[in-house]
């Protein structure tokens, strides 16, 4: 339950004490060429919802693409093709899941069946009973709220699966998948791909001297500098701990070495402010560079070569680039 409450808060969804979504009021679009019937329906809805009326199908279709929670369509009128409107709403990518209530004439079985076949969520029979309208509309709006919530939660989970929680950079899993694709392309004669593997020097001393939180601040600030130092097509990632990788498509060894040198200089030349600006720490990094420009290479081998560069840089005194 706590988890559900936390997720709701993160997503800005109001819930009651039991973690249920609060409030059933929704944006309801009434599409009906009979404007008196439309007005009657809207008047009933206004106690609980925010209704809007459209009296022709084209305007109704346009309004269905705005943020609404429910559409009520009159399919009983002869001149007005409510069924066609429903078919259009159901086949458009952005409105496929929009709840629809069809207002039908109970004597007109063919249209009622057609509406159900088109996937309307519920039926209202003429003459529309106010209590039935209120109950059916409330159910649909609540369901819409809940599925929106689940959809957002799913998007959030999918994003978290490829994101490093501390820095917001891509994580190792995402990097591995992308690198595989770039290496395959380079192997088939496409553009080269380079990787920089970087490790912060004596990072343990930051934690030991200023605390783990200060260490985290350094990692976050380092991530910002990394992300602002590379192109939009490059992938800066945190492998874990104080180890980072940048994958650079379309970049050969010579360019990669130049970029690595620039990052190394930028990091080392401007102290990191931590603990609310009370401390300024000079941070240096060791970088290994590797490039792939032909067949026979693998992501693992590429990363291993760059990693060996890091070890070599550490052995040679740190704060340097080995390509
Ligand atoms: P070297 O120059 O050889 O790389 O020395 P180092 O101290 O950076 O290397 P070492 O691998 O010995 O230490 C890395 C440290 O990073 C140890 C670990 O506690 C710390 N660390 C790993 N992950 C995190 C994190 O998420 N936050 C913080 N604050 N520290 C972390
Ligand atoms: Mg390390
Ligand atoms: Mg280490
Ligand atoms: Mg280190």
UniProtKB/TrEMBL annotation:
This is diguanylate cyclase. Transmembrane segments: none annotated. Keywords: Phosphoprotein. Residues 27-141 form the Response regulatory domain. Its EC number is 2.7.7.65. The keyword Phosphoprotein applies. It comes from the Bacteria. Residues 191-323 form the GGDEF domain. It catalyses: 2 GTP = 3',3'-c-di-GMP + 2 diphosphate.
């Amino acid at each position: 339950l706590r988890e559900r409450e936390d997720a709701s808060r993160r997503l800005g969804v109001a819930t009651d004490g039991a973690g249920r979504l609060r409030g059933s009021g929704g944006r309801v679009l009434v599409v009906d060429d009979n404007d008196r019937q439309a007005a009657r329906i809207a008047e009933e809805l206004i106690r609980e919802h925010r209704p809007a009326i459209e009296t022709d199908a084209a305007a109704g279709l346009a309004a269905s693409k705005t943020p609404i929670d429910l559409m009520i369509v009159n399919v009983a009128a002869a001149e007005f093709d409510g069924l066609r409107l429903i078919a259009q709403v159901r086949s458009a990518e952005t409105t496929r899941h929009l709840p629809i209530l069809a207002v039908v004439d109970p004597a007109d079985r063919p249209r009622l069946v057609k509406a159900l076949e088109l996937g309307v969520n519920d039926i209202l029979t003429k003459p529309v009973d106010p209590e039935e309208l209120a109950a059916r509309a409330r159910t649909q709006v609540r369901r819409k709220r809940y599925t929106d919530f689940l959809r957002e939660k799913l998007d959030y989970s999918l994003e978290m699966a490829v994101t490093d929680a501390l820095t917001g950079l891509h994580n190792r899993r995402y990097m591995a998948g992308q690198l595989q694709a770039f290496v395959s392309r380079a192997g088939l004669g496409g553009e080269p791909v380079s990787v920089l593997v970087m490790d912060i020097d004596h990072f343990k001393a930051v934690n030991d001297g200023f605390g783990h939180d200060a260490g985290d601040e350094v990692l976050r600030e380092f991530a910002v500098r990394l992300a602002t130092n590379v192109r939009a097509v490059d992938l800066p990632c945190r492998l874990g701990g104080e180890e980072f990788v940048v994958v650079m498509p379309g970049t050969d060894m010579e360019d990669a070495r130049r970029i690595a040198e620039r990052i190394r200089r930028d990091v080392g030349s401007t102290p990191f402010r931590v603990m609310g600006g009370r401390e300024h720490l000079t941070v240096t990094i060791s970088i290994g560079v590797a490039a792939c420009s032909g067949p026979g290479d693998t992501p693992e081998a590429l990363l291993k070569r760059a990693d060996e560069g890091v070890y070599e840089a550490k052995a040679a005194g740190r704060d340097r680039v080995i390509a």
